[in-house]
Structure formats: C-alpha cells, structure tokens
Amino acid sequence: QVQLVESGGGLVQPGRSLRLSCQGSGFTILIAAMSWYRQAPGKERELVASITHTGDTTNYADSLKGRFTISRDTAKNTVYLQMDNLKPEDTAIYYCKARILQPRRADYWGQGTQVTVSS
Q1: Which of 107, 83, 86 is nearest to 20 (CA)?
Q2: pLDDT reported for residue 5
C-alpha cells in the first residue's frame, strides 16, 4: 500500500525558512518522480518543484527559483523541500506527489501540510 506522509509545516515569520519532508512507504522513490505542489485558499493547486526518479534533474516553478530547493534521501525514501526567505504569499497547503513509473504509471498524493507565513 503506497503512502506519502508530509511533515514540517507550521507558522513561520516572513524571511525565515522551513524544510518539508515527504516520507514514502509501499514503494521506492528510485522508481518514482516526486513532486511538491501547493494550494492556497481560493486558488488552484500549482506545481512547486519536482525531481526525477534518477534524482539528477529538478524542476521549479519560475517564481520560486532561488528560494526553494527539492532534494531526496533514497536511504530514507524521503523527499524534502527546503524553503528559504519565505513570504506571506507562500502560505498554502503543501502536498507531496509520487508518480510511480513501474510496473505501470500511477499517481499518489499525501494528505498535505499547512505552511503559514505571517508576522
């Protein structure tokens, strides 16, 4: 049974940092493209960052380049999102998604973790 559990969200002041974690179980991230999405109130879910199953290619939303960094630890089957210099507009629920590539493509989502940036 595939499961994704996000953690690390919370309330933070503008300019500070947070690191989100997404631990997978029931599969290995070595065969999954992993992504972070976010959804702010009243807005559509948007892609934040992604990393390929090989781990050698990352992709970011243009507006977030330079502030957010996606990484992974294959030994822990965990993907991270380092968020620096946070802004109030980063306030959203952050979701982890796994696109498992084998034996057939399938997408799975975590339950989300709330990030609130406010002074």
Answers
A1: 83
A2: 97
Q: Tell me, what's the pLDDT at 65?
A: 84
| Residues 7-41 as b or e (16 or more Cβ within 10 Å = b) | ebbeebeeeeebebbbbbeebebeebbbbbbbeee
Q: Residues of 56-83 as b/e, b for ≥16 C-beta within 10 angstroms?
A: eeeebeeebeeebbbebeeeebbbbbeb
Give backbone dihedrals phi and psi of 107, rounded to 5 degrees, phi first. Answer: -105, 140
Q: DSSP letters along 106-117, please? A: EEEE---EEEEE
C-alpha torsion 102→108→112→117, nearest 10: 60
**In contact, 79 and 29? CB cutoff 8 Å:** yes
Kindly report, residue by residue over 93-107, the tens digit of the pLDDT: 999 999 999 889 999
Tell me how crowded residue 101 is: count the other CB atoms within 10 A of its CB: 15
